[in-house]
Amino acid sequence: MYVSGTDPQSDTFEALAMPLFDQLYNFAYWLTQNRDETEDLVQETYAKALKGFSSFQLGTNFRAWMYRILRNTFLTSRTGLKATMTVPLDLEEQDGLEPASEGATPEAILIERSDQQRMQSAIDDLPVASREILLLCEVEEMSYREIAETLSIPIGTVMSRLSRARRMLAERLRR
Amino acid sequence: MVCESWKTQLDTYLDGELPSDEMHAFDAHLRSCGSCAADALARVQRKRSIQTAGKRFVPSPEFRQRVRQSIEPKPRPGVVGWGWKMATAMLAILVAGLAVTDLGRQRTRQEQQVYSELADLHVATLASSSPVDVVSSDRHTVKPWFQGRIPFTFELPELEKSEFSLVGGRVTYLEQTAGAHLIYKLRKHEISVFIFPAGVSRSREDEPLPVTKKLSFNMETWSQGGLWYCIISDTSAADVDKLAGLLKGSAIS
Questions:
Q1: A2 found inside a domain
Q2: Do residue B71 and residue A14 have CB atoms under 8 angstroms apart?
Q3: Less Cβ around it within 10 Å: N or C end of chain A?
Q4: Is residue B90 within 8 Å of residue B80, measured between CB atoms?
């Protein structure tokens, strides 16, 4: 006997999206730096993604798709607008590739003191564009191609922006 | 500056993003250049620090549940349409089934309570300094020891050709009913075998329960010859089943 039915598409969506929940939440918190805003951002991301899931092509990169929605949602939020207005992204693209740091001084200090909080403050202190690319690369372990897809930028820009983010982080750790 | 061109690419190398031939060339260079190797090590350590520091925020279970509920699959509209037509019939079945379900639930609750009590007995006995009152691996010593102590008798299997060994037994109680609690050993696992008069478990005695997971223990129950048996242990389901087979065989013979 057929008793009830559910939408197979939202079934699939739940199966794909929920395993990403913790990492999306962590990433969102780094962006907003506020718990209430993080919850709003994640909730809205899931609602938008579910709504637009019919346009997502199965077999393509779902993770990058979810991050892109989250990030775009953040950028159009009040906090996101404020954050991006303070950082002229275009200038960053002109920097090109440079070694992030020379010598082991900041790292040596960091390791010596085992100071995780210091690292967290340094990441916190980065402009949002540097913070997000660093987290996508180091914490989410995304490839350059995946980051490019998530941020909708060319791979060359990923490399230059990442290089700059690393250099800025090293400077903050050295302080 | 020494190795300038290598150092420019060091981060890309550590991110695993160089083409494979360049990756190999870089590997070879790092083996021969102390300065670049030291720089690479420092950057790897920093990557690890960022990774550790970056995994910082964890959502609350309540928030996770809220989001899950907001995206969980909804009934399909088509089904809802003709589902209304079925509603009356379903309601009738539901009402009729309610009494049975309620009875079933009550029964299940009682069964769960019995299984919990047996698990408690198993754990408490093994934790005590003298888990058994009759200490013997000889079934001809253990079985007679229960005479006059419990209101029934039972058969125990010959274990010579098996991996199991009998440790001993003690009198135990379940629902104010005296029964036998036997302890067997298999490698480093201890296995409790409880034997009570049938009816003590308040469960569906005629329906034997094959090996199932209860409270993380493997448990098997069955009724045979007016007695109710329950095996409980942390050993594998297959081992529990094997011992159950031996006990069932001895009760028939």
A1: no
A2: yes
A3: N
A4: no
Question: Residues 6..25 of B with a Cβ closer than 8 Å to A: which?
Answer: 7-8, 10-12, 15-17
Q: What is the pTM of this model?
A: 0.53
Domain ranges of chain B: 4-50, 104-252
> What pLDDT is attached to residue A17?
93
Q: Is the pLDDT of residue A93 over 50?
A: no
- Long-range CB pairs of A78-81 (<8 Å, 24+ gap) are A79/A31, A79/A32, A79/A34, A79/A37, A80/A31, A80/A128
Q: What is the CATH number of the domain that holds A115?
A: 1.10.10.10
User: B18 near B27, Cβ under 8 Å?
Assistant: no
Average pLDDT over residues B139-151: 89
Q: Are residues A73 and A116 in the same domain?
A: no
pLDDT at B82 over 60: no
CA distance A172 to chain B (A): 13
Q: Do A21 and B64 touch (CB under 8 A)?
A: yes
pLDDT digits (tens, 9 = 90+) for A103-130: 555 665 555 455 788 899 999 999 999 9
The total number of structural domains in chain A stands at: 2
Cα nearest neighbour of B51 on chain A: A139
Q: CA nearest B66 in A: which residue?
A: A43
Q: Which of A37, A138, A155, A167 to mutate to test the interface with B (most CBs of B within 10 A)?
A: A138
The CATH number that domain B104-252 falls under is: 3.30.200.100
What pLDDT, on a 0 to 100 scale, did the predictor assign at position B11?
Answer: 93
The answer, for B97 touching chain A at a CB cutoff of 8 Å, is no
* Domain closes at, from A43, A61, A86: A86
Tell me which residue in A4, A99, A162 faces B10 most closely, judged by beta carbons: A99
**Residues B93, B181: Cα–Cα separation, whole Å:** 44
Tell me the chain A residues in contact with residue B82 when contact means C-beta distances shorter than 8 Å. none
- Domain assignment present for residue A67? The answer is yes
CA distance linking residue B224 with residue A128, whole number of Å? 72
Report yes or no on A3 lying in a domain. no
Domain identity same for A66 and A112: no
Same domain, A133 and A108: yes
Domain that holds residue A18: 8-86
- pLDDT tens, position by position, B174-202: 878 889 999 999 888 899 999 998 877 65
**Domain closes at, from A23, A56, A86:** A86
Provide the residue type at A74 as one letter.
F
- pLDDT higher than threshold 60 for residue A39: yes
